[in-house]
User: Fold this.
Amino acid sequence: MPDDDLRAHKLDILIVDDEAGMRSGAERSLEGFSVPLPDFGETVTFAVRSAATGEEALAALREKPPAILLLDYKLPDMTGIDVLEASHPHDFLTIMITAFASLEVAVTATKRGAFDFLAKPFTPEELRATVAKAARSIYLQRKARRLEEEKKQVRFEFISVLAHELKSPLAAVEGYMHLMQERLKGPELDSYDSMVERSVVRIAGMRKLVMDLLDLTRLESGKKKRAIETVDLVKAAGLVLEAVAPLAAEKGVAVELKAPPELLLTADPGEMDMILSNLLTNAVKYNRQGGRAVLELARENGRVAVRCSDTGIGMTEAELAKLFGEFVRLKNEHTRNIDGSGLGLSILKKVVKLYGGAVQVRSTYGEGSSFELTLKDAAVPAPEPALKA
Amino acid sequence: MNMKDDAKTRILVVEDDPDMMDQMKIYLESENYEVVAACTQKEAEPLIKPGAFNAAVLDLMMENPDSGFVLSHRIKKMDPSIPVVIVTSVTKETGFYFDKAHDPKDWIKADAIIHKELRFEQLKAELKRLMGGGETHA
Assistant:
């Protein structure tokens, strides 16, 4: 019953002690004992087995490794340390039971992977507390392992999609080269102009993808060097406007900046450029012929509000839901001829987060989209700490 | 096959990459085929009509990840004798890999799947094979 399994999970415990009284006492103490782990949505109970000698213990460990091993140091045929050594490597948590809490034993046992100690004589409460601690630790380990697995999976998927995204332009360029090689359009060089032009466009797209990818990795690894200074966003926006002007002219899109004469923010100028050019380029790219794109900047409640709206193709609810994913390029009849790396908005979202903000999007299919975000002043990095004497 | 009687064999090409479409057209036209082009699944759907084309070359992932399969299914439902080639750059490393040899239950209603960077000779050979070129399927 998987449902019950979720709610009450049993951890296997092996008790190794040569004193029969100790074994039965420990078994009794743990019988019916349960540890609630609300963080994991589970309650743990224990199934207890026992062994009286080192040999018995090793046989039991071979047969079925427990989750927790309660191991007496002094056994008739060997020491607890010998048991740990003989069963190495192992995947259980060991709690050493020692009558004489000697430092030396503790150090050696820890080196052999013991998790905790219990000094004899101990009360049932002490035993339960130690076992509960071990159970929690096991669950944390499992969770960490699971997260690590998920991380690996995400990385794998990312790389697969990336490879795919790089392959499409490569295939396009390769195809054109091939057609040219075959002289499929005859001997006149001019006949191949459009092929060369498209190849150049696709290669530029690949370059953009690689650059965006580098930006994204730097942002994610936190390794990006930030130069925090006072940035005039109006001036920065002016530069971005200039940069998108050729694209806007090509599409006949009127670009407008609504801003006060000056708007200062403590920020990294490169990151501001990323945000503003990302927004404005999208507003022009995904616009209709002869449309409008408006970039608004304002100080509101101690923050900078950035709004970028367009009269473009807009998005459906379903498209909106997918928008911020990596390599999401919404495919429809309007976006087919628009180039993009599919990383722009992932980058935008990550940069905006550095300024304590979030990106909000409103869009009406066929009418246009509006992106809104707020930015807080970045913390000025502390001056280099003086070297201690 | 009576399609040989027509002046040209018409091929429905559905491909969302404008460059791949461009190339496919140049190539197929140089092979004396006539191309009926569609850039999306949506655009292609109304084109699936009896007698509209003699063979189809479909991209797999367009506005939907399975656009090619859906279209191929429709075409085969309309006329099972129309050869359908699915072209995809979705390959082994993505974890989503399709080929006819590993589809014993015949889920994929296409006659051929061409993987990786499309080689036009390969496409030509597949089309020739599937359409028989007026001869027997040798």
Observations:
- Chain B has a mean pLDDT of 77.
- The interface with chain A takes residues 16-20, 22-23, 26-27, 30, 39-40, 42-43, 62-63, 89-90, 93-95, 117-118, 120 of chain B (CB under 8 Å).
- The first strand of chain B starts at residue 9 and ends at 14.
